[in-house]
Design brief:
Layout (H helix, E strand, L loop, with lengths): L2 H19 L5 H4 L2 E5 L2 E4 L5 E3 L11 E6 L8 E7 L21 E9 L2 E8 L2 E10 L4 E7 L7 E7 L7 E6 L6 E7 L14 H20 L3 E6 L2 E6 L1 H25 L1
Parallel strand pairs: 10-12
Antiparallel strand pairs: 1-2, 2-3, 4-5, 5-6, 6-7, 8-9, 9-10, 11-12, 13-14
Amino acid sequence: MSLQTVLLTLSVCFSTFSSSLSPRPSSAKKSGCFKVNTCKCIMKDGSGVINLKAMGDAGGFLGHLKPVSAENMPANAEVLLSFSPCQPFSQPEDLTGAGCTNIAACLIVRYHRLDRYISRCISYGRHEGNEFHYNDTQKTLSVSYFAQDEQPLTVVHYHCNPNQSTSVIRDQRLSTQEPLRIWVESPCACPNACTMGDLGLGTIFLIILSLSAAAYFILGSCALRPFRSSNGVQISPEHSVWCMICYLCTERRPARQHYRHDAL
């Protein structure tokens, strides 16, 4: 075997070994969004959280009684869409139709007949069991909402648009062959853009309570004195420590003023 052949063989082996040790591109593995609950998903690449709760208005709606164009509809009929990305809602009981309670999307078909409107509610999906699919190339989160069938009734495409100030429905399409499709432009579809939407009053209260309790136990550990009693070892507050802290806080400022006065 010649020297050139040996060197060629070693170079091939070294390149194969180094390629096996070198980190492979994991974009295909880490792309996507991991569903946490019906309103939130975490990006697999660690870029942040997408929160659907922050997209709705005060009532939770992203579109409420919004007109939708439909195929093969009579001239005396109109279709209105109501959609909530996170908060379930129910339609009034006086509307005809079944299954319009605790839903994510519904269509209200309104007929004008005999000088009055006849409205019918059609459920178009619920939050429970919805599925998340993220397209990293288009920066779009697609969420499918189901009812009782395996096929989704509504598919909403949330597109990340940081230049958009609010979440708006850009387009919707309703046909008899496909599910209802809604395209949304929202800054909250970008990872970590609207994470503060999860902080409610209860969460803020718990944070303040936890910090206060931690501060109390840390400072109170210096002010508790153990003593023995008939019931065992107990601890009681050391009043002198708290009084000393209050005394130092009240006397520190006048002392500095007196020192400055003497210096002058």
